[in-house]
Design goal:
9 helices; Aminopeptidase; globular; alpha/beta; two-stranded parallel sheet; 9-stranded mixed beta sheet
Length: 327
């Protein structure tokens, strides 16, 4: 990664805390066809934003909010405006940044758009039909066959995203420039946190379209917690997440319809002291009808996620303390 490169990933209020965070901003990877980093990273503060010392054993990651589109990508889209709105976890990074300012949590944000490559997909899940040229080694998986593999191809109600096929060599370029360095960085950060605190927590932050009303007329979830059905984190982290969100007054769902994807599969390792949770937030809670940010919604969600961060960190510290006492 490179110091001081890429977007400013801290708050813009100019106070001493935000300035301290900005000083630690780094970037990595690259977006083919654009002189931009593929992701930015800011390390956590050494205090936890609540008077505690030593920082937080936690990383917030945002893989689907990137908006740095090369001109060639936009030109190749059949309907760029519709595709961007549908593919992006639009502006959920604004919530993540505000939470990082409040808590001092470490923060990893993808700048590369999901349209170029999906960081929450296995790098082997490629639909060969999207490409022309040498497609050796490309094997369609379940997600790519549904149109949303490593390289998104189709959207429901819209059809094909692209005007035509893509050169096969572009697949390897995108993986090497964006996907591989992002996950290497993510893994390294979590390993460093685990080594320092004894336990590490990843909160993989996403947003979702509003869920359809239930057939029985029951309440509709605005937040979905995913743990790969218990495989990506220990149960006390999931319990803390559900309790905190419920106490915050929001409707929650657990592992359905979103249980998490490749990020949690690759990086969640509860036995190794790395716990990964995905959180989906209904976009209607912080975006207006024009898909623009509502500051009141951002602040409301940031306050809720701040409470969640502190709850997860408390579980991690308690587990680490108990493990140390048992040695």
């Amino acid at each position: 990664m490179h110091d001081g490169d890429g977007d400013n990933v801290a708050g813009a209020d100019g106070d001493n805390t935000a300035s301290a965070v900005r000083d630690t901003a780094q970037s990595g990877g690259s977006i083919p066809g654009l002189a931009r980093a593929a992701f930015t990273y800011q390390s956590g503060r050494r205090d936890d934003g609540a008077g505690g010392r030593g920082g937080l054993p936690l990383l917030i990651a945002v893989p689907h909010a990137g908006r740095a589109y090369p001109p060639a990508i936009l030109d190749h889209m059949r309907d760029p405006g519709e595709a961007m709105v549908r593919l992006e976890d639009r502006h959920v990074d604004a919530i993540a940044r505000r939470v990082a300012d409040k808590t001092g949590a470490a923060l990893l944000i993808a700048q590369a758009p999901r349209a170029i490559i999906d960081l929450n997909r296995d790098p082997g899940d490629i639909d060969p039909a999207m490409f022309r040229g040498d497609r050796t080694g490309m094997v369609a998986g379940a997600r790519s066959l549904r149109g949303l593999g490593l390289f998104p191809r189709r959207l429901s109600g819209m059809g094909d995203i692209w005007r035509g096929s893509i050169p096969a060599h572009d697949a390897g370029r995108r993986i090497a420039a964006i996907h591989a360095p992002y996950h290497e960085c993510l893994g390294r950060i979590l390993a460093d946190i685990q080594a320092r605190f004894g336990e590490a927590v990843l909160l993989d932050l996403h947003s979702m379209p509003s869920l359809a009303p239930a057939d029985d007329g029951g309440s509709v979830a605005t937040h979905v917690v995913g743990t790969r059905f218990g495989r990506s984190c220990a149960g006390d982290f999931a319990a803390a997440a559900l309790h905190t969100l419920e106490r915050g007054g929001v409707e929650i769902a657990f592992n359905r319809p979103y249980a998490g994807g490749y990020v949690l599969d690759r990086h969640g390792d509860p036995r190794g002291g790395v716990h990964a949770i995905q959180l989906e937030i209904d976009r209607a809670t912080y975006l207006g009808d024009d898909h623009a940010l509502r500051d009141d919604g951002v602040e409301q969600q940031a306050s809720l996620i701040t409470d969640l961060i502190h709850a997860l960190a408390a579980v991690a510290r308690d587990r680490a303390a108990r493990a140390q006492a048992a040695e």
